Amino acid sequence: MIVTTNASLLAEHFADTRNQTEKICAPLRTEDYVAQPIVDVSPPKWHLAHTTWFFEEFILHKYMKGYKPFHPEYAFLFNSYYISMGERWQRPMRGNLTRPGVEEIYQFRKYVDEHMMEFLENGCSKEVEGLLLIGINHEQQHQELLMTDIKYILGSYPLFPAYDDSIRIPKADDPGELRFDISDEGVYPIGFEGEGFCYDNELAAHQVFLHKFGLANRLITKGEYLDFMRDGGYSQHHLWLSDAWDWINENEVTFPLYWHNIDGAWHEYTLAGLKPVDENAPMTHVSLYEADAYAHWAGLRLPTEFEWETSCRKLHKSATNQDNFVDRGILHPYQTSQLHDMLGNTWEWTNSAYLPYPRYKKAPGAIGEYNGKFMMNQMVLRGGSCATPQNHIRISYRNFFHPYLRWQFTGIRLAKDIE
Amino acid sequence: MIVTTNASLLAEHFADTRNQTEKICAPLRTEDYVAQPIVDVSPPKWHLAHTTWFFEEFILHKYMKGYKPFHPEYAFLFNSYYISMGERWQRPMRGNLTRPGVEEIYQFRKYVDEHMMEFLENGCSKEVEGLLLIGINHEQQHQELLMTDIKYILGSYPLFPAYDDSIRIPKADDPGELRFDISDEGVYPIGFEGEGFCYDNELAAHQVFLHKFGLANRLITKGEYLDFMRDGGYSQHHLWLSDAWDWINENEVTFPLYWHNIDGAWHEYTLAGLKPVDENAPMTHVSLYEADAYAHWAGLRLPTEFEWETSCRKLHKSATNQDNFVDRGILHPYQTSQLHDMLGNTWEWTNSAYLPYPRYKKAPGAIGEYNGKFMMNQMVLRGGSCATPQNHIRISYRNFFHPYLRWQFTGIRLAKDIE
Amino acid sequence: MIVTTNASLLAEHFADTRNQTEKICAPLRTEDYVAQPIVDVSPPKWHLAHTTWFFEEFILHKYMKGYKPFHPEYAFLFNSYYISMGERWQRPMRGNLTRPGVEEIYQFRKYVDEHMMEFLENGCSKEVEGLLLIGINHEQQHQELLMTDIKYILGSYPLFPAYDDSIRIPKADDPGELRFDISDEGVYPIGFEGEGFCYDNELAAHQVFLHKFGLANRLITKGEYLDFMRDGGYSQHHLWLSDAWDWINENEVTFPLYWHNIDGAWHEYTLAGLKPVDENAPMTHVSLYEADAYAHWAGLRLPTEFEWETSCRKLHKSATNQDNFVDRGILHPYQTSQLHDMLGNTWEWTNSAYLPYPRYKKAPGAIGEYNGKFMMNQMVLRGGSCATPQNHIRISYRNFFHPYLRWQFTGIRLAKDIE
Amino acid sequence: MIVTTNASLLAEHFADTRNQTEKICAPLRTEDYVAQPIVDVSPPKWHLAHTTWFFEEFILHKYMKGYKPFHPEYAFLFNSYYISMGERWQRPMRGNLTRPGVEEIYQFRKYVDEHMMEFLENGCSKEVEGLLLIGINHEQQHQELLMTDIKYILGSYPLFPAYDDSIRIPKADDPGELRFDISDEGVYPIGFEGEGFCYDNELAAHQVFLHKFGLANRLITKGEYLDFMRDGGYSQHHLWLSDAWDWINENEVTFPLYWHNIDGAWHEYTLAGLKPVDENAPMTHVSLYEADAYAHWAGLRLPTEFEWETSCRKLHKSATNQDNFVDRGILHPYQTSQLHDMLGNTWEWTNSAYLPYPRYKKAPGAIGEYNGKFMMNQMVLRGGSCATPQNHIRISYRNFFHPYLRWQFTGIRLAKDIE
After folding, report:
1. What is the pTM of this model?
2. Using alpha carbons only, how large is chain B's radius of gyration in Å?
């Protein structure tokens, strides 16, 4: 973890992040904060409290003299998976807690924020800076989960209310034919280098050998995915991985998440409500299983995370020139017109398993539970989505989910071997 | 179903019942209306809407000219199990619905109440009277479920908040030794007779032959149940039914619901918060499995529902002289001093399966789904609890639950054979 | 338990019973002894060993001086559910045991039989006589389970081999219209009285009051059941109990067990192989759920076990004049022409829950686990089937199974109220 | 797939392979052929029939004129997972089939073998040669599964019979300290090259970049694993991957498969019966989860499959000089004295997910289901075990299993980064 900022900048960064989280929740009604419709989705009030607990537990509790926890039971209720930090409320039961209520949780946030600001006034050690940066990044990750969890909570309701009436979803332009950006075989650098924050899973920076390959210039569109569906894609077993075929059959999956066929026309639930499917817009909310079957059907394949990163490094000097959608009030992937869209449109499934890089080092203690212990049975996604905070849109960033999950804004970019 | 009231009295009865339901919810916070911690418990806002749907669907929709449903999707969302009334939202997913919110549901109630009052102004047919009476009784049943579901929702929270700070739970007196009221062998009447409302499952009134038996003069106390626990009751397999022993082991049950051992002293969650166990008060929140194991341990047995009803008929001329606890602001079973307490203290498990009486007739159509289809795999409870509305405390009343359930106010009264 | 026989007769009875069990297994091939296709079905070699263990454990081990168990592990492997007798091999894993092999198990039987005959040579106490009688009856119960388990094991194989080529299944005559035998209201005797063996669940003999009712003069035929099926019986929810409807839907039940529709014609697997359905023969292999739905469809109901016993007492002086099918080499219910068929054709579902009779007394110790602990969540069947040993065809006999089970030879006899 | 042999050699190879399979089953008793104690284990008779079906279905049925299948139902019963070949008997129900019996299955084998030999007499096309080679290799894979499934079937029986009394398990020598073979960073070749058979998953041969690393000169011993256990390895959460910790807790795993603590001394079930644990012998029957936790505890890590293959290429010129244990009658991993043991001792877990190599091409049609569709959620193992046929011990060979499985002969070789 490389840390180069200073305390007052960090305090500002902290305050901005905390504000942004609450801004995301502002359109919610009290009831929306409580539900946990599936185990993967957490109630918004849990996110609000858990991100706060992180600062209380890892910084205030340990480093601020005389700090008194806001409430003795909150550490138990709002720890997510840090076994080192003691017993915790089991994940599938997060939706059972009606108390503490939304109001107490906002009080908890206020209490911790005030103490944090006070604590940071006099500067802090490098060690605390590191933890603070992790805490901020952690909260930003939860901002994205908040958006996708809110989408799931509202999208489970038969009337499909808009999350916020001010959201606009522009119509996408015709993206044109699929073309491929070619990279020659060779040894390429992978992983985070330079200044600024990164997660431990982006390290160590290292080298990989890649054979010649091409990466698609854009994401697959909903129109293209519809062709796959019309061709019976969901019922042709030979297109699917064995586990994918079991998943399809056990869950009776025959179309993408949030899609609804109304009188013969496909619609999808968006954060702006139910809308007709825009065939030019990028496909999203697919599992890796669906992405892989689509690739198979198209006679192509998903890229590895190394191919993805290599192409992206070539095409984007940095991630900073990318306006991400959250900031522009567009909470839906929409345009698919250039490689440029590799950052901040949809998360892009790769066919790489989430495993440690060479010379990966897990941090000691509870913070070491952040990433390393999840390096099994998950697949890597790259690029960031329309719901990803700007700060998390990074060429070396490795997101990871189980291959059957699809409530994130996940999409499909294809690759091919070049002989 | 015997109906003898008239329209204006019924309208008043309707309005009182509707008010009472809202009064029960008054102490809740918005969040408390949403959760469904186990499948048997429904969110309070679901109860509020479902009981309202009943009047809309069975009366207004069918009998009031020009009636427009409040919302086209509510019939789908708030039907509980009336398959005849069309598709319905699946029970285990009731806690996923954050919308409609609490406010809309109160608007729904207001809308239906106003239309009902308008509709009833000009009187109604016997047929509608029958449906209205069922609707009122149905809502009263849900009033009790509301109380027990609220208890479960609040009691799952590690801090155990009081439902309402005004609740008082008086300390019970020493109930004295257990004595038995003896009934001689003979043919006895069973079931509802006379004027007023009853459910179809209380009919037909009929006769049974009983052998000589004795019924305990009072409920088993918490102190007596503690003796069973101290004697290793939960680990002596021979005391338990085979299915009960499986239930014990699969769920690792070693003490009653809502009990917590704090530094060696047993406490229980009550609607007034966490309290030390009162050893003189009646045992409650036990499954039939626990009640039966206790009886076995005591060398006695549970009564049949026919023995229970026969003793009760003898000892209570009617149910009307019984102040029930809801009306007195006591929401916990407490006194165990006389046979008198057969009505309105705890539901009393009987060892009778819930099966139809001779010449039982299921009502035609959807209303016929009210009781008959549940007559399998459930056991009968008698007497009413501290949370039962006065109107549901009736000597012939048959409540029924699966033998492993214990979130209702359920208790133990013993019986014995007299040779 | 009433015991009136003497030791030498009992020894002969013992030897006959043991022989009969092995005769049932004679047509099997070694492989057939091993499988456990569903948890309710036990491998034949398990039955052979378990019935033997019963005599070793309850008699030889306890009463024969110097007796050495055949093998120290067999008590662990072949105990079924007697928790008092120590740890046991879990039921769902019975099919995993390939050792001890069939040969060792027959050696085990021989060893125990020889010791039993030696032990009985000098007579025995009343106490041992009682245990011996239970052991013999226990083995006879397992003879019936052996037949039905063998049927399930062979009937799961896509080629449907005959159990024994010598089995003949005569074609049934037209049974004529359904008529009803009427009993007037009154107090009737129930339960076992007189000399000979009975189970504790048939006691105490007692009285019940019955209202006027009629019991069908014969079982429902397959032709009649087909009418129900053709009328959409399996898809009309209002015909089914709530738990039954769940069972139908979860298991996708749309026709009876062992039925196969081959090119539009219904066939059924019998112990003589796959045969066209004989529409005049009694319906069998239905769950109580199906029997109850059929009754509902027919506008009638199932009898209670008390109505059944009362009619049967009137119509059969005793059970002894009934040739049962096992002895006649017919292993399929076939004729349905007279009330006479109440004994030994199919087990007849009643709508009575399996609960203790008044003044029921559980035997002390492990033998007390025989019946009493199963008195919950099961329904009573009466009459005996074509696979029931003669000795178990008794007017007061109470068989019991969960309402969803149908691998026994279970059938439907209807009843009705007479006003 | 590269094919260089000719028809008469292949016919001989075919016959040898078929004989070897039956030799493996020779010590079994009829009952042992039937059971399926867990879903991953198949009954031996299923293996015998399934491998035969492969030749019938893919070669005789398609290429031999006038060939009549041995039995019309066998294709349905003995297809494993080739969805393209039509409906199939579901895997978890393989243990339910008692028919066809062992004898018919040996007749099936004989029938197919005779037809195959007749068919091969006149030579065959390259296409058939390719299928034949796959069929032979497929059967050899099942030979190993047969050994491990037989071990599981016999090892589930409380008496732990020896599979074959002639098996000898020599005592291992002290393996000496763990040392590391160092490879420098660089680009290395991976995958199958040259003549002879390989699976499609070993292709395309390609290059990888490796950073400097060391690979242990030997497997971890049972003594070393016991140190981990004595240090509380199974209860220290921070040593385990998140999914591993869940697996540990759900399955209450506290020691390796087949281990039994008898009066304080660890024993393990081997194919020669129950034996005291030999602390010098290589650890085996561990899941990847256990292997990874051990590595973590030791401050090291598992190798990637690329590191493993690179070291192995350096240290073994070829695999052919390795006597594998099956041929020497030793069915247990024993010696751990040199890098030499990388081939044919235990399968060695790598920390590489089972994913396609660059330019991997799935074969068209049903044969394409052989490998490709399993490339998800599984981990790669390398090297072959004591139960692996000689022909499957190949430096480029990729075996794969789910990370929680441990009924194969799986062991632990460690690696480390060299800075």
Report:
1. 0.93
2. 21
